Amino acid sequence: MSTEPKVTRAEQKAARRAERDAAAAAAEAAAARKRRLAQLGGVLAVAAAIVAVFIAISAGGTEDGPTKKAGETVAGQTEVTQRFAGIPQAGIVLGQADAPVTLVEFADMQCPFCAEFARDGLPTLVEREVRAGTLRVEFRSMAFIGDDSQTLARAVAGAGAQGKLWQALDLFFINQGRENSGYADDAFVRTTLSGIPGLDVDKAIADGEGSAGTEAINQAQQLADQNGISSTPSFLIGKTGGKLEKLELSSLDGSQIRDKVQELAGT
């Protein structure tokens, strides 16, 4: 005779009910986990999108790049053309040869901080000090970030051979792409240079790819080495014809440069 206790029908029902409840609880927990993962994925996607937009904006544009105005071949060409109209240029130099103060800028065409100075600092300097004949500016093209830096430095040198280096600088900075992304291809260079009225684009590219580009890059690096310059943008400033000294800045809005120009010029 069996000595095992008998299980009543009520107990059997209770056991089955407990099994169903446990299964339902497990299913609900699994569903909740899926919902949390989906919500987390959505949050991460939004965060990634925000970061992408922030990076694009901090680089000087939107996700779609700089916006062209009606009638422009390349973004920024109208303001750039107006900015340098009537100001003498000769090779790397912008401004009157006899201006009492000289500023030398070292920049890499891929450097986002150099683009920031071109956008926030240079325009006021050009309008107030350069156009007034108080300041002359020399540009020294560094090319250490990558291949796109070399390509753009050469294109700028080629434009400089035609007296339009500063227009090329500004347009390349306004339309600057992501570092070392390969954005500075032949189409980009040609399109950007085509936004400079009167520039022979084919000749500028050919000159830049030749000795003019090589000499400009080598001379810039030699001067940088002589003055202990290893980052961009960097600046030398002093009285024209005299010793130039490195100028340390805490802002790229141009105000500290203007103060130094006025001090040196005695204005």
From TrEMBL:
The GO terms describing molecular function are: oxidoreductase activity
Family classification = Belongs to the thioredoxin family. DsbA subfamily.
Q: Does the record's keyword annotation contain Transmembrane helix?
A: yes
Where the record annotates domain Thioredoxin-like fold, the positions are 90-239
Q: Which PANTHER family match?
A: DISULFIDE BOND FORMATION PROTEIN D (PTHR13887:SF14), GLUTATHIONE S-TRANSFERASE KAPPA (PTHR13887)
- Show the stretches that span the lipid bilayer: 40-59
Q: Which organism is it from?
A: Paraconexibacter algicola
Q: Which Pfam families match?
A: Thioredoxin_4 (PF13462)
Keyword field contains Oxidoreductase: yes
This protein's source sits in the domain of life called: Bacteria
Sorted keywords for this record are:
Disulfide bond, Membrane, Oxidoreductase, Redox-active center, Signal, Transmembrane, Transmembrane helix
UniProt-recorded name of the protein: Thioredoxin-like fold domain-containing protein
